[in-house]
Amino acid sequence: MKITLSSLLLTLFIIITTTFSHLSATVDVIYDSAGNKLLNGIPYYILPLLRGTGGGLTLSSNINNNNTCPLALTQEPFELSYGVPFIITPIVFDEDFIRESYPVSIKADIVADPCQGSKIWKVATGDVVGVTLGGVLNTPESCFQVVEDDMMPGLRSYQIQHCPFKCGLNSSTSFSCYNIGVVSGAGGKGFLAPTDVIFPVVFANSFGGTSVVQSL
Question: For the chain, which domains are there?
Fold first, then answer.
């Protein structure tokens, strides 16, 4: 039987679709703090799991090098401050829900940005490494994933990780992901950066009614 290019492409499409459907059925969905599935395109506050460890994630001037731009990801010092909301978007597969270990983009849901640049997270490199805005979709420096951690049995929480090898064109031979957590900056202010320390977080819907911080 003669195999045409169109039949070969059709077969390849069926294989890819079937494989993706199987993976989607087996990979766990991420849930918000109210027990609802984390939705693509919906803004959420990113809050620490443990009470008394500060508030939600927010934006500040770049405290690493004293520059105003790009804005850096920091943590509110008071636990009742939820910070600003963020939108998590799948990069490779366009689904309604956010799934564990899938590469995602994280974007600040803000109207006014004094830097007037991209609102996508990226891991800045150079003299000081930290998480800032100014990222580009589907690039190694803006590639993240969310995985469930087991910090407190019975309480569902997650760890955000930077996974550069999962997005774009990456010349690195490393297939590692790195925890994103809060480290101490100038004046004791906490800012986001790759770290060995686990920073368990929960996601609270910013539309109201479901913004609940889990407590121990």
Answer: 29-205 (2.80.10.50)
For residues 194 and 204, give the distance between their C-alpha atoms in angstroms, rounded to a whole number: 23
- pLDDT computed for residue 97 by the predictor: 93
Query: What does the pLDDT read at residue 141?
Result: 95
State yes or no: pLDDT of 185 exceeds 60.
yes
* Widest CA span in the chain: 73
Would you give the distance in Å from CA 195 to the centre of its chain? Answer: 15
Whether residue 61 contacts residue 11, with contact meaning beta carbons closer than 8 Å, is answered with no
Residues with Cβ < 8 Å from 214, sequence gap 6 or more? 33, 49, 155, 157, 202
Q: Cβ neighbours of residue 24 under 8 Å, at least 6 residues apart?
A: 93, 95, 99
Question: Cβ distance 87 to 203 under 8 Å?
Answer: no
Alpha carbon separation from 5 to 8, 10, 14, 15 (Å, rounded): 5, 9, 14, 15
β-strand partners of 60 = 72
Place of tokens 């109210």: 34
Cα–Cα distance between 172 and 22 in angstroms, integer? 29
- Mean per-residue pLDDT, 132-153: 91
